[in-house]
Amino acid sequence: MAELTLDNVTKVFTEDDGNEIVAVDGVTVDIADGEFLVLVGPSGCGKSTTLRMVAGLETVTSGEISLDGDRINEKQPAERDIAMVFQSYALYPHMTVRENMSFGLEESTDMPDDEVASHVEETAEMMGIGDLLDRKPADLSGGQQQRVALGRAIVRDPEAFLMDEPLSNLDAKLRATMRTELQRLQSELGVTTVYVTHDQTEAMTMGDRIAILDDGVLQQVGTPLECYHAPNNQFVAGFIGEPSMNFFEMAVQGGTLVSDRFEYALSPAQREAVGNADRVTLGIRPEDIVVDTEGGGSHQYDVFVDVVEPRGDENTTHLTFDRGVEEPETFTATISGLRHIQAGEPAVATLPPESVHLFDADSGAALHNRSLETTEVTEQLT
Amino acid sequence: MSVGTSADDETETGTGYPLRRIALYITLAVMAVFYLIPIETGLVTSLTDPATYSGQFPYLPPLEPLVADTGSFSLQPWQNAVDFLGQGLVNSVILVVPATILSGLLGSMAAYGLTTVSWRGQIAIYVTFVAGIFIPYQAVLVPLTQFWYNVVPLRTAFQPVAYAVPFVQEYHWKLVALIVTHTAYGLPICTLLFRAHYKKLSDEMIEAARLDGASIYRIYRRIILPLSVPMFAVVFIYQFTQIWNDLLFALTIIQFGDASVVTQELVGIGVSQSGTNFPLRMAGALVAALPTLLVYVLFGEKFAKGVAA
């Protein structure tokens, strides 16, 4: 168990024609001993490359990776005392579960055979695969293979776990179960873990902290709620949360934001945050938008319901300012699943000022994030 | 699914399905007869009296299924063929077994090094391997003779070995030369076949083994080699047949003498001034072909698996 540190880690791939592609650009993150860090981002953002550099499967172009204070850039994967779980599980198909799990201990330690056997059996029992030890991977279900892959990593008792989208090949229900189980296992074992995923639900629910990567650049490192409520920039705001945050690009005219469709009056604090920017992006999460049948107060707008997606517990409504347009621009609002609302109906949408985020329209940097205190107060009141 | 459904439909109408089946069986039967007739002819001829064999179609059962002067059915021509080819058969086995195993094993190792392990310049090396496939046999015959007879002093180097080790004869040096030649010539195709197989292995699996602490050699030994078994069956059958049936390299390197392999011996069997003994020749040909058949029977199932993979 150890602390894992990435200091300005950069990876540049050189293509055959000499083109250089920066896959990971100056990533710096300290992962505390026993911490569960989720590395999340869209495909091709460099998250897997980062993980592979930590594993030693890719060389580091510049920067330093250290484990427990020791630089490990030049160490062979085998010497790093790191175990990795792959998306495809990467089990050895010709070996039984027992042999799969013993392999690492046999290759990397001088442990006597009987000790290896007892370790393997112990771990298999813990993972609930004790009765599968003599089967081959091909005879196991996806979920069982997943457990074997995890067991194979755990049995080695490494300094750190690296997991590369380990749950993405499972069906939705099993994935939810394994998510919880993995979290519990990790906290029981207390092993420093870096978990790569493109799934923001996994990121939100599993990690002690999330690191969000886009285009090789680290966008934010923080607890899930920090990233959710106080995103550093528009990318993080849009990536974390399902359905995504709504964005409206607006021009600043004094204390008011103006677009073709609506105007939005800013509070003094928001006005101060905007400063002298002339264009900003207004962001608001779907669940913060209040949908009513009538209104007319401030920050309330006449809209039309374009599409309703019922989810049972809630409805995702797609609202639009433009009625009768073939493919209107829409924004989403989440409302209670028990409310009846029909596509094509007029409605009134409230964008509460305390829930609004403001981003610089060019750089995407957050200028103002929603206020958290007000939410708590209103919740207490209702 | 859709195939099954359409077949069912045709059964219901009662016409297309059985007709198609009948056509299929007829085609299969015709093809079976077509391919088996030469073998059947050889078999029948080998049991015919040399004196009577020209009197009828060679594929019909012999009128007098006799060996000359015995008056009764006998496997004498086969016995004679085995006696005549004995030395050649032994030499061929001494040649084929090591050459097949060596080319397969080295091909597998080369393919592993050129595919699964990554290092600078491996493509260039691989290209030279592939280029080896396209070198025509004819182009290397003279250099090959020069190489083994004049450049490499294998003959003199081999003499002490022949004295020291029991069962090893002096003339075996020619077989050693032929083993090396066949191994080298078989290496490109073996490497190509194994490479195609290794490319399909999961990279993540190899990476998992590296993280598990296995060295390059251990990964080969414990992961790659066990997963290559179906491909080894393909390569072994292919190389065995290739080397067993080869005459050109044998004529070039062994030329003549005690080290002659079975294909060389086969050329002269049943040929004398009094004429050609076709029954003996046919028996000889079948005896010489038996080991390749045996290999197909033994490795057939694994071969099919390897080809399908």
Describe, in plain words, how this protein is organized in 3D:
The complex is a heterodimer of chains A (382) and B (309). Chain A is α+β, with helices and mostly antiparallel strands. Helix content of chain A is 27%, strand content 32%. Chain A has 2 domains: 4-236, Rossmann fold, CATH 3.40.50.300; 244-381, Nucleic acid-binding proteins (OB fold (Dihydrolipoamide Acetyltransferase, E2P), Beta Barrel). The longest helix of chain A is centred in the middle third of the chain and has 18 residues, at 172-189. Chain A is elongated. With 309 residues, chain B is mainly alpha-helical. Chain B folds into 2 domains: 2-55; 85-259 and 289-308, MetI-like (MetI-like fold). Chain B is built from 13 helices and 2 strands, in the order ααααααααααααββα. In chain B, a hairpin with a 2-residue loop joins strand 1 (271-272) and strand 2. In chain B, helix 2 (16-46) crosses helix 13 and helix 4 crosses helix 7. The chains are: A alpha+beta (382), B mainly alpha (309).
